[in-house]
Amino acid sequence: MTDASNFIWYELMTPDPAGAARFYGAVVGWTIASERDPAAGDMDYRMIGRSDGGNAGGVLALGADMIAGGARPLWIGYLHVADVDAALDAIKADGGSVQMPATDLPVGRIAMVTDPQGAPFYVMAPKPPEGMEGMESDVFSVTEAQHVRWNELATSDPEAAIGFYTRHFGWGQDGAMDMGEMGAYRFIQRGDVGIGAVMPLMPGMPASMWTYYIGVDDIDRAQAAVTANGGTITNGPMEIPGGEYAMNGIDPQGAAFGLVGPRK
């Protein structure tokens, strides 16, 4: 399977990359570069390294002008598309919005959009390095620690959101878990791979948003590291189907995240 319609990158937008490096290093085991990537030009952009030598995503430093323009600490995913401009036209025609127009970077063409319910994400037509045209992204993995393992959309209109992503990205929706008064937790698939779920907005959630669950080696060790390093736990850990555990938190700079992994 190619990367079409897959999550191919994850980005942390934060005002304090050094603080984020300390936090996620302790919680997940990542190494976030101490200096900006020269290929990013004027942007302060840093790579997130995994222990196996691969990349887990990137960190964009939020400057004062970005914050004044409304940017906030946030994890955001990139979805692969063949043609960014065509994707923007289709998304706008279907009720979505463009937050950042199509932009060419050395690594490809990108744009930031929201779905019709307001959840933001990027679309990207990547430009692989010469000689690596057939390479696929491995930032998402169903099973592996230090990768994002689950993509969860909390939305004001689950039925409409599922229709939107099905139309534009070819995902499937099969199966659900009953959450009682909170509604259904509906599983989404890319091909035969379960990539996440769509759920109604929970009380206290201000807007539709994606949450990305990062794999950890031991949920109890990670939980202790969250609190010891200035983060806040907002939910869990709770056991999930299959016997592992998931939890939600806020990092010290204010970005929401999820963790998933075994209890050892």
UniProtKB/TrEMBL annotation:
CDD domains: SgaA_N_like. Residues 6-126, 144-262 form the VOC domain. Pfam families: Glyoxalase. InterPro entries: Anthracycline_SecMetBiosynth, Glyas_Bleomycin-R_OHBP_Dase, Glyas_Fos-R_dOase_dom, VOC_core. PANTHER family: GB|AAF24581.1 (PTHR33993:SF14), GLYOXALASE-RELATED (PTHR33993). This is VOC family protein. It comes from Sphingopyxis soli.
